[in-house]
Design goal:
With 833 residues, this protein is of the alpha/beta class. 39% of the residues lie in helices and 15% in strands. The protein has a 7-stranded parallel beta sheet with strand order 11-12-10-13-14-9-15, sandwiched between helices. It has a 6-stranded parallel beta sheet with strand order 16-21-20-17-19-18, with helices on both faces. Strand 3 and strand 4 form a beta hairpin. Helix 3 packs antiparallel against helix 4, helix 11 packs across helix 28 and helix 13 packs parallel to helix 14. It starts with a helix and ends in a 7-residue tail after the last helix.
C-alpha cells in the first residue's frame, strides 16, 4: 500500500473509533488535506482520486457525524475500485441510506451539524440517519451583478479599491477574470534532509529560533530577519530582508509551511524571502501550484491572492455558464465555475491546462459568433453592381506594360465577383512587399469609374498617397484613359485650404471621380455625390472607426483593404474573420531577390564599405535605428545622434534624417528629397517602414535589428530591391546573443513574408499584425492567437450554432446572448459601417 493511502487508512480507522468527531487529526481533516494531496502526487495516485479525497477532507468539518461516515465509506470504496485496497474494518459497514458505492456523491450540505453522540465509541452498527431535506440550490448571480463595484465585496475598503483600480480591477467580474501571469509549483513537499541546492519546494516544520539584526551597509537592505525551521530530519535557515515585523509573528506560530528556492550561503542551505503560512489555515501561497498575479506599486501577492481566492470560492460556483450543456459536452470543456477555480488555484497542471482551454475557447467562440453576425449583416445589405465586361477588362490588361501574375489574376477575379454581386465587397487583399497589389486596386477603381460611381483611396502618409495618385493618373488619365487629371485629385493634410475647398466641392457635385488622400478624407465636411468604392492601403495603420468613417460617406460602398504584412492563418480566422481574404503570394517576374546578411556589431565597418561602394556607383541607402534619441533607459542607438556621427563616417555623401517626432510636412519633404536623389543616405527610425518607391535605393542597413519583429524587418527589406539593380539588406543586432541571432537568421534563410509572419507570431505574439486593432483584440486575456487547433475548434462550433440559431433566440441560448453582447461591448471594437 502506498504511504499516502496507508496514512489515510489510519486516519479513517481512528476517526471511526472516535465517532466521526473530526478529531483523528489535530485541527481536523481540513488541516491535512493539502499535505496529503502533495504526498498522494508523489505516490502517483490518479488526479481525479486525489481531487475527490482532498475536496471531501476540506469540507469534512461542515458535516454531521452521520454524513461524515457516509463520506468516509464512499471515499474508501472509490479508493478500493481504483487501487484494490481493502476497506478499513471500522469503516466497512455503510450507514443505512448511504449512497451505493457506484454512485458515491459529494457530501450533502446540511443546515446545521447534528449534535455529537453521547458516547465516545460508536456502536458497531450505527443507527440509520434521519432523512434530511434536499439541500437548497446555490442561487446563480446575473451578469449585471457581476458588474458590482469592489466596495460591495467584503474585506475590500476604499484604500484597497484605489489600489485595485490602478491594476484595472473595478468590478467583481474584473476580480474573477484577473488571471495569473504565471505559476510557481510549490506542491512538491520534501523533508529538509533531502533538500538540494536549486530545489523549488515546500517544507513544513517548527520554528526553533527567530531574531532580527541590523546590517552595516550603505546600500541595499538594512535589516535581516533569520529563522531556523526544523522538521525532525534537519534544520533549514530562513532569511527575510527589511521585514522586522516577521520575528514576532513567527514566534507565535508553532508550525509553518514555507515555499521557495533553496540557495546556499557559507556552505549551508538557506531559503531567502520565502512565502510562508501557518499550516492551521488554508494554504494559498505554499504547498500547492501558486498563482503569480500582475501587480502595481501598492498591491502584494499574498493580499491579492487572498482576495481573489475569497471571490472565487464565494462567487465562481454561482456563475451561470453561458455555454449550453450539450455544447460543453461535445466540445469536452470544463464548466465555467470549475474553469475559473482552476485558473486561479489549479489542483494540478492538467486541471490548469483544461481551465486555460475552456476560457480561451470562450473568447474565440464569442469572437467568432460576433464576426459571423457582422458578415451576415454586411451580406444582407445591397450595393451598386460594378461590372467588368470581358472585352473592357482585356483592353485594360493589354494596356499594361507587363502581364499579371497568377496571384494577381486570382485576386482580380475575387474582386470582380464581389463588385458584380450586388452586395458590398468586404475584402482584405494581402500580399508580400512588391507583389503588385496596387495594380489590382487600380483595376477595381477603374471598374468603379466605368460604372459611374466615385472611388476613394486612403493611405497612411501623404507621400504614399502621392505615389498612389501618380500611379492612378497613369492608369486612368493616360492615352485613351477615361478620365482627365482634374477628375483624379489628391487631398492630404498639407493640401492648401483653397485647393481642399475646390476638391470638396468637386466630390460633392460628382465632378471629381477619384480622390486619393490621408485622414483628410474622413473630415466631416468631405461629402461625396455617389461613393461606390473605398480602397484603404496599409490597413493596419488605420483604426476601425477611421475605416468606418470613410465607409459611411457612401451608401454601403464596396470596401477593399490592403496590407503588405502577410497575415498568419490563425489571425486570418480570428482578427480578420469578418473579411473575405485574397492572398497574393507570387512576385512579378524579373524582380531580383534582396541579398540579406546578418553581421555582428564588430563587423559594422563592412556594412559601411558596402554603402560607400553602392553610393559611389550612383545608388542610395537607408540606415534604420530603433530610437529617435538616446535614452538613459536603453543602450540602443538612436537616429538623431547617429545622424551626426555618420556625417563623419560618410563625409563625401549627403545624409537626410527622418523620424516620427518631425511634423508630417517635414517628413514628407525629407522623403521627397530622398526619392528625388538629393540625399545619398537616409538615416531613419521605423517610420520608413511604410514609404514610397525609391527604385534607386539598393542598401537597407538596420541597426539594433533584435529590437524589431521579423515581419517589420521584412517590411524594411521591401523598401529596397524595387529597381533593376541588385540590392542588399544588412542586419546588425546590439549584441552577439546566440538565441536572438538565431531568430534573425530566419531573415537570411527566406524572403517569404508568410513564413516569416508565422515565425514572428510564434515568437513575439500578435502585436505586429494587429496594428490599431490591437487595442481591442489585445483584450483577449486567455486565448492564444497562435493556437490554430483551438481557433479552428471554436470556429467550427460557432459556425454550427450560428447556422441553427443565428439570433440566439432559443431559451437555452439566452445566457449566451447576454455573454456575447457583453464581450463585444467591452472587449472588441466593432467595425461600424
Amino acid at each position: 500500500m502506498q504511504p499516502s493511502l496507508e496514512k489515510l487508512r489510519k486516519f479513517f480507522r481512528l476517526e471511526a473509533e472516535q465517532g466521526y468527531q473530526d478529531r483523528a487529526v489535530i485541527g481536523g481533516f481540513a488541516r491535512v488535506a493539502d499535505t496529503w494531496e502533495a504526498e498522494a502526487r508523489q505516490d502517483n495516485l490518479p488526479e481525479d482520486l486525489i481531487a475527490a479525497v482532498s475536496d471531501r477532507l476540506r469540507n469534512y468539518h461542515k458535516l454531521s457525524p452521520k454524513s461524515r461516515q457516509e463520506v468516509l465509506y464512499g471515499l474508501w470504496r472509490r479508493i478500493q475500485r481504483v487501487t484494490g485496497e481493502a476497506i478499513p474494518e471500522k469503516v466497512q459497514t455503510p450507514p443505512k441510506g448511504a449512497a451505493p458505492p457506484e454512485e458515491t456523491a459529494p457530501p450533502k450540505r446540511e443546515a446545521a451539524p447534528a449534535a455529537p453522540p453521547s458516547k465516545a465509541a460508536p456502536p458497531s452498527e450505527p443507527p440509520p440517519p434521519p432523512k434530511a431535506a434536499p439541500p437548497p440550490a446555490v442561487p446563480s448571480i446575473t451578469f449585471e451583478e457581476l458588474e458590482a463595484p469592489l466596495t460591495e465585496i467584503s474585506g475590500i475598503g476604499p484604500r484597497n479599491v484605489k489600489n485595485l483600480e490602478s491594476a484595472g480591477i473595478h468590478t467583481l467580474r474584473d476580480l474573477l477574470y484577473y488571471f495569473p501571469r504565471r505559476y510557481v509549483d510549490f506542491s512538491r513537499l520534501k523533508p529538509i534532509r533531502e533538500l538540494r541546492y536549486g530545489d523549488v519546494v515546500t517544507v513544513i516544520g517548527t520554528v526553533t529560533q527567530v531574531h532580527t539584526r541590523q546590517l552595516r551597509r550603505q546600500r541595499g537592505p538594512k535589516q535581516v530577519t533569520e529563522a531556523f525551521l526544523s522538521d525532525g530530519s534537519g534544520v533549514l535557515r530562513l532569511t527575510w530582508f527589511n521585514q522586522p515585523w516577521l520575528a514576532k509573528r513567527l514566534q507565535n506560530q508553532p508550525q509553518i509551511s514555507v515555499s521557495g528556492k533553496i540557495d546556499q550561503y557559507l556552505g549551508r542551505l538557506v531559503m531567502t524571502n520565502p512565502e510562508w503560512e501557518p499550516i492551521t489555515q488554508q494554504q494559498l501561497s505554499t504547498n500547492r501550484i501558486v498563482p503569480v498575479y500582475p501587480l502595481t506599486a501598492k498591491l502584494t501577492q499574498k493580499w491579492l491572492r487572498g482576495k481573489i481566492h475569497a471571490a472565487v470560492q464565494t462567487w465562481a460556483p454561482r456563475l451561470p455558464d453561458p455555454l449550453p450543456a450539450a455544447l460543453r459536452e461535445e466540445a469536452d470543456l470544463l464548466p465555467l465555475p470549475e474553469a475559473l477555480q482552476h485558473i486561479h488555484y489549479p489542483a494540478s497542471w492538467e486541471k490548469l491546462e483544461a481551465a486555460r482551454h475552456r476560457l480561451g475557447f470562450d473568447e474565440i467562440f464569442l469572437l467568432q459568433l460576433g464576426l459571423l453576425g457582422q458578415r451576415r449583416a454586411w451580406k444582407r445589405a445591397t450595393a451598386p453592381r460594378l461590372e467588368m465586361p470581358e472585352d473592357w477588362l482585356k483592353a485594360r490588361l493589354d494596356a499594361l506594360p507587363f502581364p499579371l501574375t497568377g496571384a494577381q489574376r486570382r485576386a482580380l477575379e475575387d474582386i470582380r465577383r464581389d463588385l458584380a454581386s450586388g452586395q458590398p465587397m468586404n475584402r482584405l487583399l494581402q500580399g508580400d512587399v512588391g507583389s503588385g497589389k496596387t495594380v489590382v486596386a487600380a483595376l477595381a477603381v477603374a471598374a468603379a469609374v466605368r460604372n459611374g460611381v466615385q472611388a476613394a483611396m486612403m493611405a497612411p502618409t501623404g507621400i504614399l498617397a502621392e505615389q498612389h495618385l501618380k500611379n492612378l493618373r497613369q492608369f486612368l488619365c493616360g492615352e485613351g484613359g477615361p478620365l482627365s487629371e482634374a477628375e483624379v485629385r489628391l487631398m492630404v493634410g498639407a493640401t492648401p485650404e483653397k485647393e481642399k475647398a475646390e476638391i470638396r466641392a468637386g466630390l460633392e457635385s460628382g465632378a471629381i471621380k477619384v480622390v486619393v488622400g490621408t485622414h483628410a478624407l474622413i473630415e466631416d465636411n468631405v461629402q461625396f455625390a455617389n461613393l461606390g468604392l473605398v480602397v484603404i492601403d496599409e490597413q493596419h495603420r488605420f483604426g476601425v472607426r477611421q475605416r468606418g468613417a470613410l465607409r459611411r460617406k457612401g451608401d454601403n460602398p464596396h470596401l477593399l483593404v490592403m496590407t503588405a504584412t502577410p497575415i498568419p492563418r490563425s489571425l486570418a480566422l480570428t482578427v480578420y474573420g469578418d473579411l473575405d481574404i485574397s492572398v497574393m503570394d507570387e512576385m512579378p517576374p524579373g524582380r531580383q531577390p534582396v541579398t540579406t546578411y546578418l553581421v555582428s556589431p564588430r563587423e559594422r565597418e563592412r556594412a559601411y564599405t558596402l554603402i560607400r561602394n553602392q553610393v559611389e556607383a550612383g545608388r542610395q541607402a537607408f540606415i534604420i535605428y530603433p530610437l529617435v534619441e538616446e535614452s538613459e533607459k536603453s543602450e540602443s542607438k538612436a537616429a538623431v545622434e547617429e545622424h551626426a556621427r555618420l556625417q563623419e563616417v560618410f563625409p563625401r555623401f549627403k545624409l537626410g534624417l527622418l523620424h516620427g517626432r518631425m511634423k508630417p510636412a517635414e517628413k514628407e519633404a525629407v522623403m521627397s528629397r530622398f526619392r528625388d536623389g538629393e540625399f545619398d543616405i537616409l538615416v531613419s527610425t521605423s517610420v520608413v517602414e511604410v514609404g514610397v518607391d525609391v527604385p534607386n535605393a539598393t542598401v537597407m542597413l538596420i541597426e539594433g535589428a533584435n529590437r524589431f519583429g521579423l515581419a517589420q524587418l521584412h517590411q524594411f527589406r521591401g523598401r529596397v530591391g524595387r529597381g533593376q539593380h541588385q540590392s542588399y539588406c544588412v542586419l546588425i543586432p546590439e549584441k552577439r546573443d546566440a538565441e536572438e541571432n538565431e531568430r534573425l537568421r530566419a531573415m537570411v534563410e527566406t524572403d517569404d513574408g508568410f513564413v516569416l509572419a508565422e515565425r514572428d507570431l510564434e515568437q513575439r505574439g500578435p502585436g505586429e499584425f494587429l496594428g490599431t486593432r490591437q487595442s481591442g483584440f489585445g483584450n483577449l486575456r486567455m486565448a492564444n492567437l497562435t493556437d490554430v487547433r483551438l481557433i479552428e475548434k471554436a470556429r467550427r462550433f460557432a459556425q454550427k450554432l450560428f447556422e441553427q440559431d443565428p439570433d440566439l433566440q432559443a431559451p437555452e441560448h439566452r445566457l449566451l446572448s447576454e455573454a456575447l453582447t457583453h464581450f463585444w461591448q467591452h472587449a472588441v471594437p466593432t467595425d461600424v459601417s
